[in-house]
């Protein structure tokens, strides 16, 4: 039956012509919706249970390896995240995948970085015969990996990400496997955007705290300088030296308390003696 003829049929006529009733279609759509909702719930829980974006990506890479491995073959997974003004974030499902990603960053080239940077699916059917990235692929071949699939994960703004799959078999990633990886990347996209946004806000908060700390030093220098008639730059340097000295003394006092605690009383026999007794000078060995 032609597409024009099918489009001319109403719902009941189409069901009769194809042998598919409305209840069956509704059941299939409902199952699909339930599956999507379940996957979204799993991903959201990953974000909630992770301390930072690195932890989330590590859990996600392990989940991807589990979901995309077939009955007759196992794949290893890595995730590459590139963000402006931030170090690259690399997460892996296991040590082998981590090695693969580290080798790629060593040469700054390869299918995974290409997929992340260009937004295009990049595949290597056989690392021993592919002519792209020769140094990288030669190093990869020594690990036993034979085929690679890299699928971009859509993000917003200037952030880039790719899902990296590794297999010990040549031509391991069939058309169906590629479609499954694409589907996984799409399902992951929204949740990963949320994780990246949280990371950006966390970074911004850290920058704001540092800016406020610097502003406090500058304001304090202005006050002290106005009283002591010292140039502002000299006063700022003096305050920063004092702050550094205070932090050093505080760290030493904390470690001393830990050393002299009852649980560590046996360590006092090592001969620690007091300094000048001012409470700020470090202790010295007798």
UniProtKB/TrEMBL annotation:
Gene3D superfamilies: 3.30.450.40. Signal peptide: none annotated. Residues 56-202 form the GAF domain. This is GAF domain-containing protein. InterPro entries: GAF, GAF-like_dom_sf. It comes from the Bacteria. SMART domains: GAF (SM00065). It comes from Arthrobacter cheniae.
